[in-house]
Design goal:
Blueprint (H helix, E strand, L loop, with lengths): L2 H21 L10 H31 L6 H25 L2 H27 L6 H29 L5 H33 L6 H18 L9 H26 L8 H24 L7 H43 L15 H23 L4 H41 L1
């Protein structure tokens, strides 16, 4: 069921790389350029949204015991809406066609409302409360608000509404990256990092308070719509940076205390993502504090590159863990059903060869470095776009290979069971 989301996500990275290759350094002129908006939303509404929705559909039943009603039907309905909506939105930015900027938000609203309501219903039936459950609920609420504000912004462009675009955009970005992205990342990390990386658990105080801090900052950011001046957005952004930096530092410290010293690509994706967060926060802090006012534009763009790179890194690492885990879980059930208890399914490490994941990981971090350098040396933009296409396609092929191995192992288990019976 989550496979369709995971197998789709990397190809939005390919599309983003293609735009970098086509438009070159014009993507870096300003964040308001049509091509820049298209690339950004192919990553956020495309890659990130696909992967995070797929992860939630698997994560909620397995970790917090939430029973999502008709998950296959839900995924079959929501997935194409998000895919088509992301492509139409990017096309609307690039072409300036009003009809596209009007149609895209309607698809996101329909898909987002269906997804959030279905998952909220599953979470509400859980009687036990914990920090992971709280983070999941808050992230879903932030996703709903992100879609609402994003739809208003898209419609304002398509219908030529006169709105406070700067303030609404700041709130939309805060809801998307900090509310939906960062809170969900924390909620998943509370479970995934200790389980798969064998680290101590996150501090209880941080797990409880961090989502509340982000929500408080989001509420304060809403004041910017009615209160004049940039000081609210600046203060809130610094607050978001502080929370993100705290999450990154704590995660790295936990990784340093892990019980097993062996590392895999998922570990290094997480580590690289946390380093990107800290670097992006540092650059963003320099810009907001006006230490290097002459470097305003590069600092702004480099902050965005690093923060988006951080999300892509961690999400890639999670998918390299979740897909083999889903395979193993279903193969275990199939093995017990056909062969009997005591029989073990194939090892998780066989689902996606680690050497392939590690090579793609190295390419991913090289892409991030070249894109960051391209902010300062625009001649590298097209090279970065080509590399992003290769890296994203490589990720997609590796994940598809994991699904194919699941099919092959399933056939083998059924064949062995039939041979045993005969």
């Amino acid at each position: 069921m989550p496979y369709r989301f995971f197998l789709t996500a990397p190809w939005f990275g390919v599309a983003a790389g293609l735009l970098l290759l086509i438009y070159g350094k014009s993507v870096l002129v300003t964040r308001w350029a049509p091509e820049t908006l298209a690339v950004t939303h192919l990553i956020t509404a495309g890659f990130m949204l696909q992967a995070m929705c797929g992860a939630l559909l698997q994560f909620i039943p397995v970790t917090v015991g939430g029973n999502v009603a008709n998950p296959i039907r839900l995924a079959s309905f929501v997935h194409p809406l998000f895919v088509v909506g992301s492509l139409i939105l990017a096309g609307g930015f690039l072409s300036g066609q009003s009809v596209l900027l009007i149609v895209a938000p309607s698809l996101f609203v329909l898909g987002g409302a269906t997804f959030v309501i279905a998952l909220f219903a599953a979470l509400r039936r859980i009687t036990v409360s914990n920090p992971t459950l709280t983070a999941l609920k808050l992230s879903l609420l932030a996703l709903a608000l992100t879609v609402v504000f994003g739809s208003v912004l898209s419609l304002s462009l398509g219908l030529s509404w006169s709105l406070q675009l700067l303030e609404l955009t700041a709130v939309h970005v805060g809801l998307g990256l900090a509310g939906w992205g960062l809170i969900l990342l924390l909620g998943v990390s509370l479970y995934v990092v200790p389980m798969f990386q064998l680290t101590p658990p996150y501090p209880a105080w941080f797990a409880r308070q961090m989502p509340r801090w982000v929500v408080a900052l989001i509420l304060v950011s809403l004041l910017s719509i009615v209160v004049p001046g940039n000081w609210i957005i600046t203060s809130v952004t610094l607050g978001f940076f502080a929370v993100a930096a705290g999450y990154a530092v704590i995660t790295i410290r936990l990784q340093m205390r892990r019980r097993r010293r062996l590392t895999d690509p998922s570990f290094w994706f997480f580590r690289g993502g946390m380093v990107a967060v800290l670097t992006g926060v540092a650059l963003g802090g320099l810009r907001l504090s006006a230490v290097f006012i002459d470097l305003d534009a590069p600092l702004l763009l480099s902050t965005g590159v690093l923060l988006l790179g951080a999300f892509m890194s961690v999400i890639s690492g999670m998918m390299y863990k979740i897909v083999p885990f889903i395979n193993w879980l279903h193969l275990q059930r199939l093995t017990q059903e056909l062969v009997g208890f005591g029989s073990m399914p194939p090892n998780m490490r066989l689902m996606i060869p680690e050497v392939q994941a590690r090579r793609q990981m190295l390419m991913h971090f090289l892409v991030l470095l070249v894109i960051l350098l391209a902010v300062w040396w625009p001649a590298l933009v097209q090279l970065a776009g080509l590399m992003l296409m290769v890296s994203s396609a490589w990720l997609g092929i590796n994940l598809l290979g994991g699904v194919r191995r699941y099919v092959d192992f399933s056939k083998q288990i059924r064949a062995d069971a039939s041979a045993k019976e005969s």
